[in-house]
């Protein structure tokens, strides 16, 4: 169970901007294998929530527990989660293969069995045979699929997905949704930020509606 309670945050320079939100306060609970859809207008704090959970931002107060353990004490790389951001997920100087290999091992030292996972996951996300391409040689939607593939390879219990379907055609979108439904069925817990009520309806068990 992911237990987020009164997680409060304020950007340090928020007082200088007229349009900036005054502060954020998040509370929700999410069981294993559940998906929480996070919705709301642009600027309401959806990406901020994911950054707080991942540990890229530090809250003023509140609680984030996973299976009873306090995650706020852990640095981002020791938290049991993987994030897929809206952009800038991939290293442009590395091939698709090496971007995926990084998800499996920080030094890209792969055993024979983990090496086999790369062509397999590329097939799953509809990018078969693209191992040698560089991110700059892919469309935005293809890059997004590589990012999702890398997140899935890591097999962390929690997945934080920020608009993962943006820029995808209907068929690819459906393919990725099926893949995420499979992950859920095998126990993955997810937060799905999405503008699209259709995506939320398909994947989310519950919705956290944030207001501007
Ligand atoms: P969303 O993902 O829902 O569109 P964000 O979480 O990115 O919204 O942003 C929420 C609010 O915080 C917005 O008002 C945005 O302008 C502000 N904000 C985001 N990042 C920063 C930052 N680094 N410094 C100051 N304000 C920020
Ligand atoms: Mg956002």
From TrEMBL:
Signal peptide span: none
SUPFAM superfamilies named among the record's database cross-references: P-loop containing nucleoside triphosphate hydrolases (SSF52540)
One Pfam match: ABC_tran
Keywords for this protein: ATP-binding, Cell inner membrane, Cell membrane, Membrane, Nucleotide-binding, Translocase, Transport
Family annotation (PROSITE patterns): ABC_TRANSPORTER_1 (PS00211), ABC_TRANSPORTER_2 (PS50893)
InterPro entries xref list: AAA+_ATPase (IPR003593), ABC_SmlMolc_Importer (IPR050093), ABC_transporter-like_ATP-bd (IPR003439), ABC_transporter-like_CS (IPR017871), P-loop_NTPase (IPR027417)
Domain ABC transporter: 2-212
GO molecular function: ATP binding; ATP hydrolysis activity
Taxonomy, superkingdom: Bacteria
Name of the protein: ATP-binding cassette domain-containing protein
